[in-house]
Amino acid sequence: MTEAHILEHAPLAERMRPHSLSEMVGQEHLLSSDALFLKQLAAGQVRSMLLWGPPGSGKTTLAFIIAHQLNCNFITLSAVFSGVKDIRNAAREAKDLWRGKRQKTILFVDEIHRFSKSQQDAFLPYVEDGTVTLIGATTENPSFEVIAPLRSRAKVVVLKPLTPHQIKSLLQRALADKERGMATFHPVIDDAILTHISEVCDGDARVALNLLEGLIMATPPDEAGNRVIDPESAREAIRRETLLYDKAGEEHYNLISALHKSLRGSDPDAALYWLVRMLSSGEDPLYVARRMIRFATEDVGNADPMALLIANQAMESYRFLGSPEGELALAQAAIYLACAPKSNAVYKAYGQANAEVAKTGARPVPFHLRNAPTRLMKALGYGREYLYPHDAPDGIVNQDYLPEGLSTRTFYRPKDAGYEEKIRKRLARWKALRQAKEKL
């Protein structure tokens, strides 16, 4: 099977892949006439790099064009299917080509973040001695997913998601292209549908182009040979195919961060939006529920003790009902948490108590607080001089409950927020009572 035949049957996104920098859309910060990256490329000054950007932003395309423009041998590896043996074989091919034809090699590694740390180590000697110019593509933050020695030898180049306007221009180009695009199928599609595709594909050109192809190929030609796309059917098909979501990748953390910060910022509309984004994209609803329980203790705390109960009940409701009915309970909890008074006093108190224990170690329990179930323990003073609060008319006794040397420590400082204001006043009143009894 010839390469042309393979390309003919490839997805639209592959057929429309740019062959030159002039065909690329977006990434103006790299490819505009005054951009340093483009000037270095024009001068042939290309060093190893890590292309970091979202799916469909042009990482593979840019690597291919760089190799073509510099007349370099282009070897591709995928971290999903390759190992150290493949890296060594690629380096051997690069050395033989340099000795024979004095031609340099660009080694393109797709999803380089999927290589283990030891596998990434295997690139180091070949990048160090210039055997290959490494171009790694990753959707994940290289700071966390690529080993430091490799990062220090490769420049991180950030690619941005394409804008809806840029995506739409690619769709229009594909509709008009008779050789690689869809023009020969005579599609008739509303401009509003193109706009809709460009807005819901999250800056991913591959998703947008393949959505367009799917709509056209799913529409039979009419008597005139035209494929007239029905707007309502198109919108329903797009809704089912979009909202893709990588639950293990960076976007997972970006979305849960957006939800958490919207809750903390007391914005129920934004909180509901991010909740729906996560659920519609395939996130485990119980994960979202667990995070809202954490939020109830970290950011609401005793300002509204009901928040923790409602968050827990939302999780139990989802377990009982499942989807889609149970998702409404999660929505109710998210709105309640966003509208609740906020206090991080419990969160801060726990952190300070942790720090104190780490600093001062396991100090002995004061004798008056110790349990004394045996005669020997009573004889040793366990429980002696313990004051029983219920014996006091007001329930308050002048007694230390912290270890010796820590009696003045205060970890919990309630705020003037919601129910916590009542707690603050109550603690202040109890403190005043203890001080008064201390003077007696």
Structure notes:
It is a single chain. It contains 22 helices and 7 strands. It is of the alpha/beta class and 440 residues long. The protein has a 5-stranded parallel sheet, sandwiched between helices. The chain has a two-stranded parallel ribbon with strand order 6-7. It starts with a helix and ends with a helix. The relative contact order is 0.07. Residues 1-6 and 244-248 have low confidence and may be disordered.
Poorly predicted sequence stretches spanning 5 or more consecutive residues? 1-6, 244-248
Structural class by sheet pairing and helices? alpha/beta
Ends: how far apart? 100 Å
Task: Return the string of H and E elements.
Answer: HHHHEHEHEHHEHHEHEHHEHHHHHHHHH
Mean pLDDT rating: 86
Backbone CA Rg: 32 Å
Helical content class: 40-55%
Helix count equals: 22
How are the strands of the largest sheet arranged? 2-3-4-1-5
β-strand number? 7
Largest sheet: 5 strands, parallel
How much of the residues is beta strand, in percent?
Answer: 5-15%
Q: Judging from the principal axes of the Cα atoms, what is the shape?
A: elongated
Kindly list the characteristics that best describe this protein.
five-stranded parallel beta sheet, 440 residues, disordered N terminus, two-stranded parallel sheet, 22 helices, alpha/beta, 7 strands, single chain
